[in-house]
Known about the structure:
17% of the residues lie in helices and 32% in strands. By secondary structure, it is of the alpha/beta class. This is Glyoxalase-like domain-containing protein.
Amino acid sequence: MFGKxxxxxxYSVDDVKKAKQFYxxxxxxEVATEGEYMLTLxxxxxxxxxxxxxxxxxxATFTVLNFPVPDAEAAVDQLIAKxxxxxQYGGDIQTDKKGIHRGDEGPTVAWFTDPAGNILSVVEAS
Length: 126
């Protein structure tokens, strides 16, 4: 039934203007405004993401958007230079001082949040 549809994902933010500034100016994404309460993130490959304003927004407690990068540490350094703070995890998902998880299993990954508190990541693509 949906095998040939071009699906897209979306999630809420509490402030559409702050979200636009963050995704466009900090992360460098092309952002299209869809009225007063929605944004479309133009992701390479055509897999756009819809962001919508929600007055009673609650941040996601899981990663909502992953950015594959060739070098996670370089991406983390660039984002830190732009004022991004990376999340720190302990336990099974240990992160180093920069917030980078370098596990024996799985990719090198680092998590950060958008202004609405939604969790995003940079993932080292091999």
